[in-house]
Every structure is written in C-alpha cells, then in structure tokens.
Amino acid sequence: MSFAWAKQYEPQTALTKWLDEKLPLPRLVYNAVGAGYPVPRNLNYMWNFGVLAGFFLVVQIVTGVVLAMHYAANGLVAFATVEHIMRDVNYGWMLRYAHANGASFFFIVIYMHIFRGFFYSSYKAPREMIWLLGVVIFLLMMATAFMGYVLPWGQMSFWGAQVITGLFGAIPLIGEPIQVWILGGYAPDNAALNRFFSLHFLLPFVIAGVVILHIWALHIPGSSNPTGVEVKQESDTVPFHPYYTAKDGFGLGVVLILFTSLVFFAPNVLGHPDNYIEANPLSTPAHIVPEWYFWPFYAILRAFTGDLTIPFTGITLIPAKLLGVIAMFGSILLWFILPWLDKSPVRSGHYRPLFRKFFWFGLIPAMAVLFYCGGAPAEQPYVLISQIATAYYFLHFLVILPIISQIEVPKPLPFSITEAVLGKDKAAEAPRAGSVGGGDTGTAPEGSLQPAE
Amino acid sequence: MATDTAATTEVSAAEEGVRRRDWIHIAALGTAGVGGASVLIPLISQMAPSQDVLAASTTDVDVSAIAEGQAIKAVFRKQPLFVRRLTKAEIDEANKVDVGSLRDPQTLAERTKEGHPDLLVTMGVCTHLGCVPLGAAEGESRGDFGGYFCPCHGSHYDTAARIRKGPAPKNLMVPDYEFTSDTVIRVG
Who among B28, B45, B53 is closest to A91 (CB)? Predict the structure, then answer.
C-alpha cells in the first residue's frame, strides 16, 4: 500500500472475489504481511523481533486465557489453584511454564526490538508515531507483567504488589490515598488480587489493539532498514511474502528452540524460589527483587538515596523516595521525546561514527550495569555503581545525543538500498538497477558502499 | 538470488518439474504443521477432567444399613447415586413386565448383580435432561410405576428404574460397581 509498485491483490476464485467485495479481509492480509507489502531488501536479523513480539503476545493470550480457566483470584485459594494447575490440570505445568517464560521471552524480544530502534534510529521522522505507539505498548506490557506476577499470590507476588503500589505513595499529598485506592485496602489483599486479575486479563487485548495501530502506522512509510536510506525504487524492495515470511519463520524457529529449552528443561531459572511460598503479610523475604525484565528500572529507582535539598538551609525540595520514582518513570517516559532529542538527519548507526561509540561503549554498558545492579542487593558497591550508570543513562539521552547530532560528521550514505546491497563488485549490473530507478545509481562515493550485514 | 533460483529451476526441470527447493518447502511447512498441530494437544487436553477430579471417581457405599423398601442417596462424581433395597413385591412387579414392550428393554436381573437381586444401584440423573428424579427419599412421589418420578418433565420410572412413561429415552443408568465385601459396594 505504501509504494506504487506494490503488487495488487487479485482474487482468483469466485469465493475470494465475492469475499473481496463484501469484506476484503484477504486483501488486508495480503497488503499487510503478504506479497502486497514491499519491504527493503536489506533487512538484517534485527528486523525479526517485531514479528517475534507479535508471536509472543499471541502465546501469552492463548496460554493466559487457558490458565484463567483453572485459576481463582481469591486470596484464600489463589496460591492453591496455581498448585492445582501445576499438579492436577492436564498439561497445566506446561501451560503455566510457557506463560511465565513466555513473559520473559516477550521482554527479551521487545528489548531487542527497542534497541534495534535505538541503534538504527527507527524513531526518526517519518516514523515517530510508530515509536510513540511502541513506547505505549512497552508501558502496557510492564503493567500487565507486574499484575500477572501478583496472581500466583506467593511471597514475591505479595511483596511486589506492596512495593510497586508503594511507588504511588511517593506522590506528594495524594500519594497515600491513591495507594490505598489502588489496593482497595491498606495492604495487598483479596480486593487488590481481584482487580489485578481483571486488569491482567484486559490489558493484553488493549496491547493487541495498540499493536494494530503500531503496524498501521508502520505501513504508511514502510519498514526502515539497516542503511537508514529510504526506499527509492522497486529494486530496493522485495515482497514481504515469501522473502520475509521465510526469514521471520527461520528466526521464529530459532527462538522457539530457545523458548522450549527453557520451558521444558529450566522453567524456573528466571523465577524466584520465594514465590513458591504462599503470601505472608507478616514477613518480607530477605531479598526482594522484581522479575529480571524490570531490573534496570529498579536499579534507577534505588539509585536515589538522598533527598534533594537546598544546600545549607536544610529545606527538602524533593524527598529521595519521590526522586527515585520520578527517575524510574522518567527513564521510560524520556523515550517519548527521543525523536526530538536526536536531530541527526542520518538514521543508521552504521554511518554515525560518534553515535556508534556512545551506543556500544556508553548506553549498552550502562544498561548492562543497571540490569546487574537491579538484581543485586541494595548495598554498596551496587548503589554507587547504579548511581553512576543512572547518571550516564540520563546524560546519554538528554545531553549526549543532542550534542552528537550537532557535531558529528556522518559517513557518506549509499545512494540507495540497491547500491548498498549489490556493492561495487556488482557495479557492472548498475544499468539493471538504474534502469528502474532512473539511471542515477552510483553517484555516491565508492567508499560508502557497505554490505548491509 | 533471482539468478540462482532460475539456474536451479533449469537444472531440475528435467526431473518432471520437481525442484530441489520443493524439498525445503515440504520439510519446513510439514514441520511447522506438525508442530502447530501438536500445540493443540495441551490446549485441548487441559479442559478434560483434571487429576483431582479423576481421583474422586470411585465411591465406596456401605449398603448394609439399607432396610428393605428403603433407598439412600449417595454421591458419585458429584452426581446423586440411588441405592435401593427392593421389596419382594417390587421385584415381582419388575419381573412381571414384558421386556419387549419397554422403551429401553432390560430385565431387572441385567440391572442388578448376581446374588444381590434386591439391590438396585442407579444414577439419580434423569436420562431426559439431567434432573434428579424423586422417589429415593421418604415420602416423595414415586410416579405411576412405583419407582422414580422426575418432576421436571414428567418421566416415570418403574421399580427397576426403567423408563415407562414420559420423555426420557433410557432407563436410569446403572454405573459400573462391584461388591468389595458383602456389605460394601465400590462405584466407578
């Protein structure tokens, strides 16, 4: 639908012709993920993760709906019904382990997807809306995952609910009433468990809705690609089907091998043993941490240990608790303005030498450190290390990226995707590509030619 | 890529249109198909009775205290189970009936265990639409044929709990059971 040369759906049989007139669903699919969607020919494996994220959303909804047939959101029996699923329900163990590890894999692929966006600047015009919707999906995922983790009603569930709703208690003046309102009580109990179950069931369908918007917005400019050079001509693209259905299918196979390995051979490595102890409001486990996918943000929360005060006056402007909460939410909300922080006209990190250095030696190590510290106990030296990494994280987005985009001299871009793919070795074939695109292929310097992978 | 495909096609065109790539297509789609279909096994199977439900699928009933002409209600798989000690008159009445004239032809002997012709064990579930018939408890209507009577849609069962009148298609079901001793039966 986005390019003039996109193949048009042509119904072949009487039935599909009739259907196409009344409800052109096959046409929609054809144009969205079929031969009717022209995609840059040079996508690397980092472009697999969108489809994989969609796949894991489906896994979570299917296994989740099934688990809800056996689970009861009642503080008295919730923990027992989870054990009932594990021991009595046919294949219940498999379904629950697939759901729990499916959440982890959903986050793995979504983090790859997001960092693909960071490196290749997928957030830049004309794709800002895709990025913004993606951040919304990520926030919804975090809320859904948190509430899902409360449902087994183990110790980690309970204290996770206590701590995360406590974040809202940091809001000045209205914080504590809001926390009590969210929980429907003074501590997590039946009321909180029931509403979390209801919302945990609802939100995935909201996510699915935003995913549809995300894909709709994607299909207007079309997919980005590793060169960051926009599609110019038909030879820059291949039809989504069969080229990327096959490539995504292969990627899916690899990820499914990893996923099933975890589900069948190490289903609990990403979980916490404490969550197999039933919730006890009178005893907090010695070391409570969220699930691994929240660790970087948890580290940012804990990095703020001192109040923000006016020096020498003793007046506290913002208490440490609120600072941590602001920083944690801010670290993600920041992504909403990312398209306007990074003003460099060059998209791909391949052609941005300075940006690339700060990406690989700044942002990635900072995230890795935050990830590690978020799972570590709240003691030195982890607190200091997370403070340094947190500082870098915010500096990277708010200061370094805008400055880089001003001072950086990007490497020359290839004229087109076709040129980037075929390279100078195929220069003899240039007339073939040029005949489609208008014959101006090869104007870019030879040195800029770089294979996409 | 396009040229590779063309070359492959030309080479194998001699083999009656079979291409080497067909093998990959069949193998990949076959594997995906089998894999996708096998995912249905847990998804469908999870709705079948779980292990704790199956574990409750046998029930022991002590029948020694049931007096002649009396019936008790027990529970088997969360459904009512009627155990009745028939009187001599009831047995005679049941045996008098011409089996061929019944909607669901069965003799009383076929519905009881050998050596215990007076002990009638049936499910208390009307074979019409699943209501619990009356007649097992003291003082309840036992219908026109002196057995059980289902008030929902008016099915009458005789002393051998066979359907005689009304919409029900079958006799009250006799579950699988055995005598574990002279006085105790194990149903299921």
Answer: B45
Distances (CA, A) of A123 to A132, A224, B6: 8, 10, 39
Residues of A in contact with B52 (CB under 8 A): 84, 88
Cβ of A62 and B51 within 8 Å? no
| Assigned architecture for domain B53-187 | 3-layer Sandwich (2.102)
Per-residue confidence in pLDDT tens, chain A, 453 aa: 468 888 899 999 999 999 999 999 999 999 988 899 999 999 999 999 999 999 999 999 999 999 999 999 999 999 999 999 999 999 999 999 999 999 999 999 999 999 999 999 999 989 999 999 999 999 999 999 999 999 999 999 999 999 999 888 888 888 889 999 999 999 999 999 999 999 999 999 999 999 999 999 999 999 999 999 999 888 899 999 989 999 999 999 999 999 999 999 999 999 999 999 999 989 888 888 899 999 999 999 988 887 777 777 777 778 888 888 999 999 999 999 999 999 899 999 999 999 999 999 999 999 999 999 998 887 888 889 999 999 999 999 999 999 999 999 999 888 888 888 887 545 334 454 444 433 344 444 444 444 443
Q: Where are the domains of chain B?
A: 2-45, 53-187
Contacts of A372 (CB under 8 A, 6+ apart): A295
Residue for token digits 């995922």? A141
Min Cα separation B12/chain A (Å): 21
Distance CA B159, CA B142 (A): 9
- Closest by alpha carbon to A98, among A240, A261, A215? A261
Q: How many residues does chain B have?
A: 188
Do residues A404 and A344 lie in contact, with contact meaning Cβ atoms separated by under 8 Å?
yes
Give me the helix-helix angle, A155-168 and A190-219, nearest 10°: 70
Q: Is B153 designated active site?
A: yes
For chain A positions 47-86, those within 8 Å of chain B (CB to CB) are: 62, 66, 69-70, 84
CA–CA distance, A146 with A155 (Å, rounded to integer)? 14
Catalytic residue among A248, A274, A342, A419: A248
Helix A155-168 to helix A175-183 angle (10° resolution) is 140
Q: How far is A92 from chain B (nearest CA, A)?
A: 7
Give the start-to-end residue ranges of the domains of chain A.
37-270, 309-410, 417-448
Cβ distance of B41 and A91 shorter than 8 Å: yes
Contacts of B45 in chain A (CB under 8 A): 90-91
The fourth-level CATH superfamily of domain A37-270 is Cytochrome Bc1 Complex; Chain C (1.20.810.10)
A window 235-274, beta carbon within 8 A of B: 249
State the complex-level ipTM: 0.78
Quick one: closest CA in A to B53, which residue?
A88
Cα end-to-end distance, chain A, whole Å: 27
